Description:
The structure is a homodimer. By secondary structure, the first copy, chain A, is an alpha/beta fold. The first copy, chain A, has two domains: about 1-80 and about 85-115 and about 270-370, Isopropylmalate Dehydrogenase (3-Layer(aba) Sandwich), CATH 3.40.718; about 120-150 and about 160-265, Isopropylmalate Dehydrogenase, CATH 3.40.718. Chain A contains twelve helices and twelve strands. A ten-stranded mixed beta sheet of chain A has the order 2-1-3-12-11-4-5-10-8-9, sandwiched between helices. In chain A, helix 8 runs parallel beside helix 9 (about 250-260). Chain A starts with a strand and ends with a helix. The interface between A and B is large, with 58 and 59 residues. Strand 7 of chain A pairs antiparallel with strand 7 of chain B. Bound molecules: 3-isopropylmalic acid (IPM) (2 copies). One 3-isopropylmalic acid (IPM) sits at the interface of chains A and B.
Amino acid sequence: MPSYRIVVLPGDGIGPEVISQAVRVLETISTSSPEISLQLESHDFGGCAIDKHGDPLPPSTLQACQEADAILMGSIGGPKWGVDAKIRPEAGLLKLRKALGLYANIRPANFASDSLLDASPIKPELVKGVDMIVIRELIGGLYFGARQELGASAEQPDTAWDTMIYSIPEVQRITRVAARIALAANPPLEIHSIDKANVLAASRLWRKVVTETLTNEFPQLKFDHHLVDSAAMLIVANPRKLNGVILTENLFGDILSDQSSVIPGSLGLLPSASLAGAPSAPSTPDFKPTSGIYEPIHGSAPDIAGQGIANPIGTILSAAMLLRYSFGLEKPAKAIEDAVRKVLDTGVRTKDLGGEAGSEEIGDLIVKEL
Amino acid sequence: MPSYRIVVLPGDGIGPEVISQAVRVLETISTSSPEISLQLESHDFGGCAIDKHGDPLPPSTLQACQEADAILMGSIGGPKWGVDAKIRPEAGLLKLRKALGLYANIRPANFASDSLLDASPIKPELVKGVDMIVIRELIGGLYFGARQELGASAEQPDTAWDTMIYSIPEVQRITRVAARIALAANPPLEIHSIDKANVLAASRLWRKVVTETLTNEFPQLKFDHHLVDSAAMLIVANPRKLNGVILTENLFGDILSDQSSVIPGSLGLLPSASLAGAPSAPSTPDFKPTSGIYEPIHGSAPDIAGQGIANPIGTILSAAMLLRYSFGLEKPAKAIEDAVRKVLDTGVRTKDLGGEAGSEEIGDLIVKEL
Ligand SMILES: CC(C)[C@H](C(=O)O)[C@@H](O)C(=O)O
Ligand SMILES: CC(C)[C@H](C(=O)O)[C@@H](O)C(=O)O
């Protein structure tokens, strides 16, 4: 019987509350499926780790993450460790992404249930059927290129700069992940690559490598290119046009994935995965990461922390992604997603969606469905 | 009697069609106001200039623009001069912006008439009252920083990079423009500065300089800071929260201004200004640019060019901005805006808004109102 080690990073604010419901769901899967054994262990990460250890990513947490089969995370940060603080939770997150080599961030934006169409800020006739997966390069570009802070250089005392840099292999590997995920669907998804090739050299490299990789290695896939400014318009004006896979670099992905996550009406519903490891041979549609962090896309929402009213669904769906991507366990992953949809179809809603159900109640109902 | 020289750059696609209606409006103002004399002259720019002169910005056009009091532009580009072409219209645009020092791009996103609320892709209750002005730094950052194309360096043969660089004076001057525009409204507008200060050094400089400039020079103004990813969410989920001035750097401004321009339902309705010249003393609310390009925000729409159905309102409202900002002629500027609103209130619509009126008909009606 395969046994998997999952490191759990509850984090700050509502993190521990949403995590505890997802942990219940994973434990239900583990005890009810004789062929699956999941070992869960929690570690300090983020603001709470700054408070306890003076470091958002203590060495013991990093080591546990490196040894884990997969990582489930809540949310980190809060005003206590705000912009002016010397040590910030975000630094730990960026360091962890880089240390684990998590270059592929995967964020679906779709409706867990059609009963949620009305929750969208965009008109229902425009968003019905929206089904996008943003695949964002996560450890390159402006985030990790060389930079110079204001005041750091005697020759340029009044400037600051960052570098958007990409190499051919970096773009190849994220393109292959996008292709693998496109091929896993039936029929395969269309790929929309986003760049600013009319201005940026890094985007011209991006466009060239995406085109060559897809044309040579995945001739069966359809793809096109959009400029980031017009993609930002399309996501609001006609989002179905970008159905399929949205493939883009780190900063554009940060912006566009957040923008598209507003479509389903509540950030509380959406999961994400950040993966490491080269996909195997280009012809096999499967993609087995060597490491992965799974987390809801929402923040730590300190204003509602401790009240038991946070929506745990984004975290629960992240646990489903974990089973699917890191362990290849499609059946229980699908079972969790179906259970979530069924519960939402009954009309139960947490506060973010105008309802009154608490985190625990949603957890109960989903566990019962399973 | 002050006489003003306006250079007109009709450009490509629907450019000449929308320009000709705006020119009629300006000529009406000029002939009906004894105290205003406008001299208009047309020059080649964009794709048509590539075809005729092999250069999107021929020296004669550049010189005319440098000598003009203001510039009115249509739209440039088209598939004929696409991504793979050696000489591209966009290069001319970037060169013109830089040559004229047009560092301040100003793009309002609001409803020219409440009768258009239903045209928005976002629900009317969320967009009613949306009134944002995006002020984008236009000749700095990633657009004009040092870059290296793929293949250009023997040491780094497989990489390409661009630099996002800002200096203190660059951020000061655009902040002062934003403050001037905020102060010109009664009550003054709130300023929302957008950056990615949790990751980028250039954004940390941006945030520091914006904060210091506004605090020291404009203590009467209210302002806050948003991260670009969360601003991209807000513009869709709750756009009124960003009412007022959105102040941001070049690339973020490119993305966010396009994104917010979708709110009013048709790109055909929205004007823009790109301005040069330091505002005078910080205490005077007026801002008199030394040079300015005024243009609709839509593209050249080659698919509908030559049919006389393009919406000329964005260009006509750009002409109003020209009178206001470059010449300080508030009265005729306001008159044009009022005429546009009245015409829209009667329900007449061009095709982009689901109607049947042609460009000429809209021009007629607005001229008649004047
Ligand atoms: C916290 C921040 C550094 C991070 C990012 O920009 O990557 C966040 O916005 C995200 O998208 O995970
Ligand atoms: C054409 C392109 C270079 C330009 C830009 O990115 O600045 C355009 O998108 C704009 O916003 O005016």
